[in-house]
Amino acid sequence: MHTPQQNRLPKTYRISAVKRETEQVTSFTFAVSLGAAPGQFIMVWLPGVDEVPMSVANDDGKKLQITFFAVGDTTKKLASLKKGDLVGLRGPFGTHYEWKPKQHLALIAGGYGAAPMFFAASEATKDKCTLTSIVGARSKEHLLYLDEFTKLPHTTVSVATDDGSQGHKGYNVELLAELLKAKKKPDQVFACGPERMLVVVSDLCFQHKIPCQLSLERYMKCGFGLCGNCTVDPLGIRLCTDGPVVKNDLARRITEFGKYHRDHLGKKHPL
Amino acid sequence: MNLSQTVLGVTFQNPTVLASGIWGITASGWRRVAANGAGGITTKSLWLTEHKGHPNPTIIATEHWTLNAVGVPDAGIEKAREEIGDYNKNPSAALGAGKPVPLIANIIANTVENYGKTAQEIVALKPDFLEVNISCPNVEDEFGKPFACSVRDASAVTKAVKAVSGKIPVFIKLSPNVDDIGSIASACAEAGADGFTVINTLGPGMAIDLRSRLPILANKVGGMSGPAIKPIAVRCIADVYRATGGKKPIIGTGGIMTGEDAIEFLLAGATLIGIGTAVSYRGGEVFRLVCEEMAAWCDAEGVKKISELTGGMHRALGIRD
To answer: What ipTM does this complex have?
Structure first.
């Protein structure tokens, strides 16, 4: 019998720390661990309002951190909470990034993808992996977790901003393209960020035959495999169970990847 | 051992059927579940027009039970046309059998008249069966007590759907949350129902978060499913089988986890076995696992055909009397 090690019943916890990362991005820390691995997500419940999936930014066995953009109704309300306020948590759900000790990993973080990429980075360095982290954002005000990435051992950090206000002027995938042309290629590439970025990463890694793991985002309702809302075409697999982290071979068989997604009613919308 | 059966002219390679509301929003999902070993697929409830569901949390679970108040969201008839059309162009081949996996289109509506209209639209898409959801406990705030709760309403919906369903068999999905499910079933049978799906979710139930003191589900209450409800489902199937003289095929569903659970449901009177919530307890491979476990039990007990088991409990009681 399958006994999930995931908690599927939300339980409220008091926020133990609040950090405003940027104007739109907030981090909450909770004095609880859900045993999450990098790439996994949890369902975050604002009692009386809604519950939304969020990638885990850190879980060290004692405390858990989430980092989120205040972009919709629920996240804006969440962003106004203070230390001591109650937030419901359950999980961890989904697949996680996987690596072997001592591998050389390239981590491509776009926008909000920096948090789960940092979680992967910090865990991978514990396994003596060497990292090339490429962090991208619209402008320097929107770069996330840069200090944290820089402090990790065995890590080279590159930055890309659309407007050139810091680092390379352009996209992080342009830096990845350069990296993949170099003599010493990474053993694996991990990516987390907007789907258009993931499509480019997927194509580059496919061309250069480098194993790659991508975090795919789709509308999620239950988070643990029942409702079917996160099912992708044409394979019919659920991204809460067979994702969100998927290997490139699988991602490239998801024909809707990079093209469309479905909403809470199952209706298609172009990306 | 032979797990296949023909039910009202439709062949099922094994008796497991994906229950409505689980994983069943798109043709890709239906095909994936069929590839996972399901003998039949039930779509998520289809509305004529767009219908929004409830905010989250909508599904919560412990080891023993699951509560859901998803609220039957659906994009409406256009999406149904697209997905059923897609599925029928390339119906999944059952594992190793090369035959299509039957599609049961589940429909829902808010008035008797709209049940008729919805049925008419869906029948045109040629599913193998129609399943009529008159028993969802999660839209009571919107529509009041489900149609399944009164003989008069259940009968009226059955008549309205049968008036337009043509050759497609109509299964009425019954609620356990009634005083006498047998009498509801008899009334539907008299109104022309070809079969029954027994049961929809139980309750509704509620779970409260201690610190916030709030109900966890956004809808406050939700239908209960999962292992804990199995005894209720078994009794309801037995009641419906008895009330309809064993003459109407029953898709028995509610708390099934294993092949032995499935055997129990067959003995109570089921012909087919609906599996839903178990997908989250045992994984997507639950259909294949349940079939393997059923076959193993039958082999050990000398049962050659799965259809022998349907209603076995009633015959055993009859022999005792």
So the answer is: 0.95
